[in-house]
Amino acid sequence: MALSGFSLRHIQVSHILQNKIALITGATGGLGTAVTQAFLDSGATVIGVSRNLQQSAFKSGSFLGIPAELSDPLAVNKLIQQVIDKFGRIDALAHLVGGFAGGQAVFETDDPTFESMMSTNLTSAFYVLRAVIPHMRQAGSGRIIAIASRAAENPGPLVGAYSASKAALVSLIRTVALENKDRGITANAILPGTIDTTANRKAMPQADTRTWVQPASIASLMIWLASAAGQDVTGTAIPVYGAGL
């Protein structure tokens, strides 16, 4: 999808999601913090989720932090029911949970690495989607945005398990879009290049970070997709590759 003539960094997000309820998984960390703050700044009430999330992570009366293990389907069901019981609905789901492992060719990749990538990048998304979608269908509206990876469509060597898990996530999101397009629900994936986070800078100290994607750019795109302005965009995998292309 080409976003011609449109700068992610200059989208005006103030109040664009006023009175909306947003669930953000992976709400902390380099990208999660930027996305969660952007949703709060947009006027949304945000339920942030991660394994060890503290309420004090964001100083906003519109933020509720819930620690949860998203690899456990029972824990996911309990989480979503808790949100529905308190807020009555989920208008937007921003699924940021993910992980990376690489450095091995496919024939060298062991079972734990492959299973970990599938569990972290695909299975957790499946559990969350399965629990959230029925409530969105009942409401007749909803926005779903998942963070995949450039590697989902442009895999490189030595990252086979990671690339496969992210490609499967994109396929899952596109399927969700087709299955729910008649219920006012959109579903899209974002394919970032290398994101400029503290963790990535530490892992790649010699890299030219000038070409990396800024978390704020991804956050702005997610706000737009979650808003009324994004209602006609669904089933896409949007490249956000940064200056390096």
Structure characterization notes:
The chain is an alpha/beta fold and 245 residues long. The chain contains six helices and seven strands, in the order βαββαβαβαβααβ. It has a seven-stranded parallel β-sheet, with helices on both faces. 39% of the residues lie in helices and 16% in strands. Residues 1-10 have low confidence and may be disordered. The protein is globular, with a radius of gyration of 17 Å. The protein has one domain (8-240): Rossmann fold, CATH 3.40.50.
Short description:
The protein is an alpha/beta fold and 245 residues long.
Q: What would the keywords be for this entry?
A:
245 residues, alpha/beta, Rossmann fold, seven-stranded parallel beta sheet, 6 helices, globular, disordered N terminus
Question: Any chance you could write out the topology, listing elements then pairs?
Answer:
Layout: E1 21-25, H1 29-41, E2 45-50, E3 63-67, H2 73-87, E4 92-95, H3 111-139, E5 142-147, H4 160-180, E6 185-192, H5 198-203, H6 215-226, E7 237-240
